[in-house]
Specification:
- About 20% of the residues lie in helices and about 25% in strands.
- The strands form 3 sheets. It has a 7-stranded mixed β-sheet with strand order 10-9-8-7-11-12-15, sandwiched between helices. Strands 4-3-6-1-2-5 form a 6-stranded antiparallel β-sheet. It has a two-stranded antiparallel sheet with strand order 13-14.
- It starts with 7 loop residues before the first helix and ends in a 9-residue tail after the last helix.
- With about 325 residues, the protein is α/β, with parallel strands linked by helices.
- The chain contains 8 helices and 15 strands.
- It has 2 domains: about 140 residues, Translation factors (Elongation Factor Tu (Ef-tu), domain 3, Beta Barrel); about 120 residues, Rossmann fold.
């Protein structure tokens, strides 16, 4: 098997040549020949998109939506680990990394929740049931849901950060007897920006899950907490010496969330973050997502806090 590092400069040149951000068919084929490692958990070449059909597009908020996809080959399954991501390719427009937001125990379809923030996601929002797009993945590391067994689990989500944490919560709730207290702390800008609102209400109704939501700015009719999500950590019910923390959201929010968890007594080795960087290849070749000594696409996106503490808040390293 050839060493992918010997092709890094050629791969970088091929990727940089794509000034429109659309998938370059010839380059993709060349890369697929050079890099033979399979995408984790699949028998697929990591640089070869597989065709998927849109089953449903659901509006979550004014600027956020969820795509439900099904493989064009109906016998295929979307097996993934909570916390992983896929590369979604809108034909003729471009490709973007999006975290998987669905249930890992329901592999017949795959869900992705994203904000409409650029040309590719704008094109995605115009898709309709039956339309096709390309998918590569899954990629990256996942949340340590198995390792967290027999511990309390505190999930801290800010804004769109709830989407990559939702599969971990699905996994834990399906195996609820294996965990101690499970606490979800979720913050958004306004009540209108809260994701998965119907599901949040169902989660609130469970006796074995504690859900606390907060907003930065209240609106008429809001009776919940007002303030940033990190203010909930100091009064959340969990045993700090027996707790695993899962954190995802804007990076500044994650830094403050980590400090609050540490202040409560949670070990740095028990706190995990999902990092976001500009990803292009998703297999550690192009170097776009390098964070100090690691690649977010390959070594992450989920990292143990003590491994990346020095690099938090740094984008060009």
């Amino acid at each position: 098997m050839p060493n992918p590092e010997t092709h890094i400069y050629q791969a970088q040149a091929q990727l940089d040549a794509d000034s429109t951000n659309a998938w370059p068919t010839a380059s993709a084929g060349a890369l697929a020949l050079q890099v033979h490692a399979k995408a984790p958990g699949t028998d697929l070449e990591p640089m070869s998109p597989r065709p998927c059909r849109v089953l449903r597009l659901k509006t979550e908020t004014d600027d956020t939506f969820t795509l439900e996809l099904q493989p064009a080959n109906s016998t295929s399954r979307f097996n993934f680990v909570p916390g992983q991501f896929n590369m979604l390719y809108v034909f003729g427009v471009g490709e973007v990394p999006i975290s998987i937001s669905g249930d890992p125990d329901r592999p017949r379809t795959v869900l992705h929740t994203t904000r409409e923030v650029g040309a590719v996601t704008r094109a995605m929002r115009r898709l309709r049931p039956g339309d096709m797009l390309g998918l590569r993945g899954p990629f990256g590391t996942g949340w340590p849901v198995a390792e967290a067994e027999n511990n309390d689990v505190v999930i801290v989500a800010g804004g769109i950060g709830l989407a990559p944490l939702r599969p971990a919560l699905y996994y834990i709730l399906a195996r609820r007897e294996k965990y101690g207290r499970v606490v979800l702390l979720y913050g958004a800008r306004t009540p209108a920006d809260l994701l998965f609102r119907a599901e949040l209400e169902r989660w609130r109704a469970r006796f074995d899950l504690e859900v606390y939501a907060t907003v930065d700015r209240a609106m008429a009719g809001w009776r919940g907490n007002v303030g940033v999500v990190t203010t909930l950590i100091s009064r959340a019910p969990f045993d700090p010496l027996n707790t695993v923390g899962l954190v995802c959201g804007p990076e500044v929010m994650m830094r403050f969330a980590v400090q609050e968890l540490l202040r409560r007594g949670v070990s740095p080795q028990s706190i995990y973050l999902s990092m976001e960087r500009n990803m292009k290849c998703a297999v550690g070749l192009c170097g776009r997502c390098q964070l100090g000594p690691v690649f977010v696409c390959k070594d992450g996106p989920v990292f143990r806090y003590d491994r990346i503490a020095h690099w938090l808040g740094k984008w060009e390293v």
